[in-house]
Amino acid sequence: MISLLIIIQSCKINYSFTGAPITAKTISIDYFPNKATLVKPSLSQDFTDAMRDKFVNQTSLELVEQNAELHLEGEIVHYKTNSVAIQGDETAALNRLTIKVKIRYTSLNQPDDSFEQVFTGFEE
User: Fold this and answer.
1) Helix, strand, coil share (%) of the chain residues, nearest 5
2) Residue 87 sits in which domain range?
3) d(C-alpha 76, C-alpha 83), whole Å
4) Cβ–Cβ contacts within 10 Å for residue 1, how many?
5) 68-88: per-residue pLDDT in tens?
6) Domain of 71: which CATH number?
7) What is residue 94's predicted lDDT score, i.e. its pLDDT?
8) Which residues pair with 74 in a beta bridge?
9) Surface-to-core class of residue 66, CB atoms within 10 Å of its CB (0-12 exposed, 13-18 middle, 19+ buried)
10) What does the pLDDT average to over 1-28?
């Protein structure tokens, strides 16, 4: 879950999570399906919920289902865990979770700010 928040925090959408002024009042965030080769059943819902929670709790934007001024959609394109530290008995002492998410951001008020980008994050 921590790596999900790393990706979310790196997603700068012309809005600082500290309350910088913008003209938009509403945002819609679609479900992020897991298109990665490795599929963890709950990852899509966990990521989508974390993304929505971040915007609801740390911005003044209202989360709406449709007709939003800002819109986020995308998919999880890569997900893996690797052992980064091995103990004497050859078991993993530390694992690294890496996730890549393709995000498409659309701004109705400022179309030039719209983008599509892949964000990568990891957590050990």
Assistant:
1) 25, 40, 40
2) 2-123
3) 21
4) 11
5) 999 999 999 998 887 776 666
6) 3.40.50
7) 76
8) 103
9) exposed
10) 58
